[in-house]
Amino acid sequence: MGNSLICRAKKDTRENGSRSKRMGRSQRKMLAEEEFLHKQALSMALHQHQLSQRFDGSMSRRIGSTSSRRHTDPLANNEKKVLESLEKIKFKKIILLHGEGFGAWCWYKTIAHLEEVGLQPTALDLTGSGIDLTDTNTVTTLAEYSQPLIKYLENLPEDEKVTLVGHSSGGACLSYALEHFPEKISKAIYLCATMVSNGQRPFDVFAEELGSAERFMQESQFLIHGNGKDKPPTGFMFEKQLMKGLYFNQSPTKDVALAMVSMRSTPLGPIMEKLSLTPEKYGAGRRFYIQTLDDRALSPDVQEKLVRENPPEGVFKIKGSDHCPFFSKPQSLHKILIEIVQIP
């Protein structure tokens, strides 16, 4: 009797163990299937998000509709028209020039989007900026600072033209190029930039925020004396917290973090140089200006003054953008750039 109970108990234990193993395998299989379906759903959602974000972040489309009816998507039609229009454009090359302290890296969103629509963007590192290894303390003139752009334009085929986009103090490089290479520039787009008049310095545009050039040279705590304290300053760089407040008051935190580890000092000579601009060359160029309306580095009032005193062919505005719309309002910026490129 006792042995019979023991045997039955052992048999029950084996059966329970076997059942437990079968249930474990079954549960693991179910979990694996659920995980696969979850990943598949994420993949579909990501793919759909990328499609819908191509031109407008608010655009949405239904997935897996069981309806056999076809719906006309006006946004898709508009996208098709834009692509067809861009396909007909003769000059598709766009050169992107950064502002003070930045580098080609700041245009990463802009490059991706412009390439998606068939344009050919190129972002340049100006001398001593980005990954260009030149010591900024040795860059003393606007011509030296603009050398990467000058070389690019010099090597451009005779039958080619480009659209230039300049951000902030990079606008001075646009003006320099319009004066020296007018035949190679299709359009010049100033993005909250230093669009100065003849005889002005790029620094003069920032005078309201930073004070006069003379005062800045004497008193600013942000100056760099690369040749020694007893010699004139050679560059400047703002303290990080100040930069965040001036440049990035509306930008995503990830882009701000990228900027904080990537920005370099700016050579002082080029922005203190007075530009010589003539009506025959610079004045004949096709200039456009993009204003940023929540800008603390170059206030909307200052930008309005620039376009009033030195009128461009067209003016565009980005609401809610700080001084870096390629971070804070990329979709709005890209639409405006595409619109300007399409202007006959």
From TrEMBL:
Residues 1-27 are annotated as: Disordered. Residues 9-18 have a biased composition (Basic and acidic residues). Residues 94-331 form the AB hydrolase-1 domain. InterPro entries: AB_hydrolase_1, AB_hydrolase_fold, MES/HNL. This is AB hydrolase-1 domain-containing protein.
